[in-house]
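User: For documentation purposes, I need each entry recorded in a consistent format: the amino acid sequence on its own, followed directly by the corresponding structure tokens. There are two entries in this batch. Please keep commentary to a minimum and don't merge the entries.

Assistant: Recorded as requested. Entry 1:
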Amino acid sequence: MISYDIKPMTANTSMSIKDEAVVGAAMTVAQGFSSRPPALGIGTALALRGGSQQDLTRLDLELDFSWQPALASVIAEAIDRARSPQAPWITTAPVLLLGENGVGRTHVARRFAHVAGLPHSTLDLQDVEVLERLQGIGRGPDVRIPLAPVLAMAASGCANPVITVLGAETATDSVQIELARMIDPATADRFADNSVGATVDLRQVSWFVQGQQPERIVAPLSRLLRRIELIRPSGSERLLHVAEIIAEAVADENAGASPTGQSLKRLLDSLHRIPSDRSTSHLYDAARSIVRNGSV
């Protein structure tokens, strides 16, 4: 059993240059298979982020999923937990995001991660190499890359990343059960990853599993996930949705401060004119193009 190493962090703590040096908590997530330290620095104490007053205020003010009440409830619960002195960091209950293609399932996970100050990565169960790693299949001298949650931790120095899971409902039962082991708090603290030579504690990961056919999710996985049926926003809620997409596009394009005043109005008007049946990814691509071309 891997034990937590929760300790204060200060501005002197070694962190990535992009990370905020705020007072928070840290956690030792990996325990090596041998006396050798785990690869990629995963054996050091990693930050547990999102629990500062600034982070929680941003989540309260900037993250508005009012047209998705079930999702808003999950986020509200995460904020309440982060305000507890026992767990001052952000992690959500694992969810199954249901809805048609283009409804915005990846967007809501990325938007939550961005506002909370957490890294986001994707675990694609349709990827053959991912499936081989989950099933413990090796290929001779080929370098084995850690799975998304472990790689996200190592790359960001963060113990509580946000992970979007694709292709769960088309995966075999055995692969879905392996995913369930990564998510279930009873087993997630000892996920064996041979690529780093360690067992890794995944209990603080926020899981956003995508799907359209919940009946194809096996029972051991389904019972761990809170089902959320995403819907397309309409009316004034769609305008707010567009504003969130703009904020995401500005961040992804490293465009600095978000547009304001007339620039924001022109961008909102431009995107709001796109037919409401177009996908969230279409809106996002349009926003990125406008931001990239300096049209705001």
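Entry 2:
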Amino acid sequence: MVRLGLCTDPEFLHSVDPTAVRWRTDFLLFPELADSGYAGLAQGMSPHLSGDALLFKFSTFSHRAARYCIAGSVAFRGGSSRVTNTSLVFHRRRIIHRYDKIHLFRPTLDHRYFAPGADVRIFNAQIGRSRIRCGVVICYDLRFPELARALASQGMDLLFVPARWPVARDQAWRTLLQARAIENQIFVAGCNARGVEGGYSYVFAPTGECLFQTKGRASKPVEFVELDLTLRDTAHKLHRNLEEAVYLKSMKLPARIKRRS
């Protein structure tokens, strides 16, 4: 079993001292723009830099509370003038993976705040004797199945989706999370912010079964769910989607997107 924690409360980062938290959690996942959301961007919040106070909090969570901390996303300026909507993965205080949001959502003015990402890569997590291959996409990225398929073609077992997906479009959010799980036969964990910019969070099994949802539950700052890794084998008993994808075999999915100049 793998234990996943989803932090769905946007105030959690500001109200809890991570140096005092001790859990036994394998993964801890936060929402998109975890610290202040789009409201913070509209108010002129500065981008985060490597090693600043917020990123130090995330790194501490990966040491005290969880083996791996998927830091939702933040507005990030890392070593260049470009600001990206970035998810950083911490393990034992170190950054082991970075994903920059590729598909920018124009209604929330993503294109004004951020430059798009280009890298499409997985990272490996060791949980006991199990190696779990993981990927991250951010919110609007979920609407583009080729991105999840590119990660799945690299062997991904578990997809993390930090988001700020409003309740008004919950049906699409839930359906797309479930679809990515079914078509790629992977676990999919969607961690959504609460409040006016967010909605509900869901976790789906490789079979498409809903393992967890916050809809209809009393609000808690962190929710926990266990993932039974044998469900991967259950999903593969009758068919293996990636191996049998005829059209996919004629394509070469790149690990980095080439953009037109």
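Summary note for entry 2:
The chain is about 25% helix and 25% strand.
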